[in-house]
Design goal:
The protein is of the alpha/beta class. 32% of the residues lie in helices and 20% in strands. The longest helix is centred in the last third of the chain and has 15 residues. The protein is globular, with a radius of gyration of 16 Å. Bound molecules: D-xylitol-5-phosphate and zinc ion (ZN). Zinc ion binds next to β2.
């Protein structure tokens, strides 16, 4: 089943209540919230205060993508703010296993993200504990970048790793997704699609979401 996770990085920040309500009405499977600290990535976005401010306005699951150094310092705050899924970058912590359990012990779904240059063997020892893997298909920090083609092969190899380990979990891809790049991404084995600029630049969010789901 293909799941669509619109990223509010491309939303109108002055009107996030309206934007998240529109995404819920448009059939988003989850709302992808990009947290950036200006340290792990060269951009700054939202904190837990913003996540808790928009939480009451929709029932859609919150998929919180932490692009922050030392995520373990803030995981509890984002869970309190209403995250349903927490994604930690493997590159951002010395203690990935501990950070995963910090999430899971609170009953929240745990996901590990890899930057484009990080080899998938970073997942080998933790994949059995995860609910989802996120492969970045751009260098994180900004919306509207071009999909990195070598990500396709990485997606297939990640699916192979999952079957070798006997885990059947979600495989999410983030960065440069649109109606042209998505068909090959799905063929390669991804089933959760993050899209920011494609959905927010479309005149009709519902149609854009359906378009990605159908390709
Ligand atoms: C990039 C973020 C993405 C971003 C994707 O650092 O993690 O979620 O919003 O944006 P698009 O879909 O425009 O590439
Ligand atoms: Zn993201």
């Amino acid at each position: 089943m293909i799941k669509i996770a619109p990223s509010i990085l491309s939303a109108d920040f002055s009107n996030l209540e309206k934007e998240v309500k529109q995404l819920e009405a448009a059939g988003a499977d989850m709302i992808h919230i990009d947290i950036m600290d200006g340290h792990f990535v060269p951009n700054i976005t939202f904190g837990p205060g913003l996540v808790s401010a928009i939480r009451p306005h929709v029932n859609t699951a919150f998929d919180v993508h932490l692009m922050i150094s030392q995520p373990e310092k803030y995981i509890d705050d984002f869970i309190k703010a209403g995250a349903d899924i927490i994604t930690i970058h493997a590159e951002a912590t010395h203690h990935l296993n501990r950070a995963i359990w910090q999430v899971k012990d609170k009953g929240v779904k745990a996901c590990v993200a890899l930057n484009p240059a990080t080899p998938i063997n970073a997942l080998e020892e933790v994949i059995s504990y995860l609910d989802m893997v996120l492969l970045m298909s751009v260098n994180p920090g900004f919306g509207g970048q071009t999909f990195i083609e070598s990500s396709l092969e990485k997606i297939s190899r990640t699916r192979e790793l999952m079957s070798r380990k006997g885990v059947d979990i979600d495989l999410q891809v983030d960065g440069g997704l649109n109606h042209e790049t998505v068909p090959d991404i799905i063929k390669a084995g991804a089933n959760v699609l993050v899209a920011g600029s494609f959905i927010f630049s479309a005149p009709d969010k519902k149609k854009a979401i359906q378009q990605l789901r159908m390709v």
